[in-house]
Amino acid sequence: MANVGIYVVVAAIPWSWEIWTILNLGFVPAKYSVAGAFDWTALAAPLSHQFLHGGVVHLLVNMVMLAAFGSGVERVLGTRRMLFLYFISGIAGGFAHWLFYPVSTVPVVGASGAISGLFGAVLRLMALRGGAGGFLRILPVAVIWIGISVVVGFTGMPGTGEAQIAWAAHIGGFLVGLLFFDLFTIGLRRRRPRE
Predict the structure, then answer these.
(1) Quick one: residue 89, left, alpha or beta (phi over 0 = left, psi -120 to 50 = alpha)?
(2) Element (H or E) spanning 189, and its range?
(3) Hey, which residues are catalytic here?
(4) Residue 63: which of 147, 123, 6, 9 has the closest Cα?
């Protein structure tokens, strides 16, 4: 709901304010690489960029994916841990994008890195509950998903116009959920099945 609410607010404010918001609260890699570019907005952007979206289609796709992946992860981890995984994945996604485009001044916006982390967690849950094969069973899905992210990043996604896709952010967030999911389960009590 926060993503939708923030999108509505940003869409309703004057155009010059909206541009300021995107340019300053979106994740701009150059702020972390170019001398003198780092400012207070660079402290906020790793988190704030996750609440901004580049249009209605971008928002809707992300919200559908959040509902699809987030609900299952929340049932296992609980709300707090799921949100922590979500935000850490989003932050990792931003910095994965920075690794590939360190001097880019184009702001990255959207919750895709965070949601990708939840997808990685879903795959881990499938591996844990799937019996034989475990991690190796989900490896082909992970490789295919990474491949799709790269292809979409370079060719674009239907319905997004000329908008660039931050493919590295998707992969960075995904890898957090996939590889570090167990860290978010430390101390969790296993729920007993209902009789």
Answers:
(1) alpha
(2) none
(3) 112, 170
(4) 6
Least Cα distance to 118 among 152, 146, 147, 84 occurs for 84
Interatomic CA distance for residues 48 and 42, integer angstroms: 10
For the stretch 8-40, pLDDT in tens is: 888 898 999 999 999 999 999 999 999 988 999
Sites in the chain below the pLDDT cut of 70: 130-133, 156-163, 189-195
**Which residues, other chains included, contact 160 with Cβ-Cβ below 8 Å and sequence gap of 6+?**
54, 55, 57, 58
How would you class 1 by CB atoms within 10 Å of its CB: exposed for 0-12, middle for 13-18, buried for 19 or more?
A: exposed
The answer as to CATH 3.40.50.300 being correct for domain 2-185 is: no
DSSP string, 63-109: HHHHHHHHHHHHHHH-HHHHHHHHHHHHHHHHHHHHHH-TT--SPB-
Q: Which residue has the tokens 């881990």?
A: 124
For the chain, domain boundaries: 2-185
For the whole model, what pTM was predicted? 0.88
